[in-house]
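Fold it.
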Amino acid sequence: MRSALRQLCRHGIEALRPQKVNDKWRKPKISRRVANDLRKLAIRNGTYGTFNSETGEGWNPLWDAPERKAKEREAFHTVLKNAAAEEQDNNNDVDTDEKTFFKTIEVDDLLNMNNAGSNKGSISSIRPPKLHKRERTRESRAQKIEGLLEQADDKIEEYRLEKEKKRNEGKDGIENEFKRMSQSSTY
């Protein structure tokens, strides 16, 4: 991820695109998977819509995949048509520049247009990472251990008393049995 952020800071959108060098295509410097991870991180952190090249924080919406851009352009033209209809009613000026539109549009609107970075399938939200089972069950294991530690002193005392009782029973029982057997022998 750090190298991907460095590439984004240095090259911008060119790091996300394949390039033709000496009549041969080279793959993008940042893979689509890593780019999507960076985009989701920006959405979670609330830095989607801006990119700071010094810190490497954020995501520029113009870097999105072509299918996402197509949805945004459709939304732009829908807004433009609605604004044109309002202009006819109110005779107001309407800004028809896409770049200005993307600067003024709210981040929440962009998130709604893109289904918040979801898959193309039916899942419509960003799910938290699944993590390993040991990480998911850590809290319940800690609570279980704390509960057992509360009972530990009682169990230790009970165990010691039981051992003492067995030790006393064992001495009396074996000694008495041995004496009885030795007295009753007929040799």
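The chain has three domains: 2-63, 66-117, 136-183.
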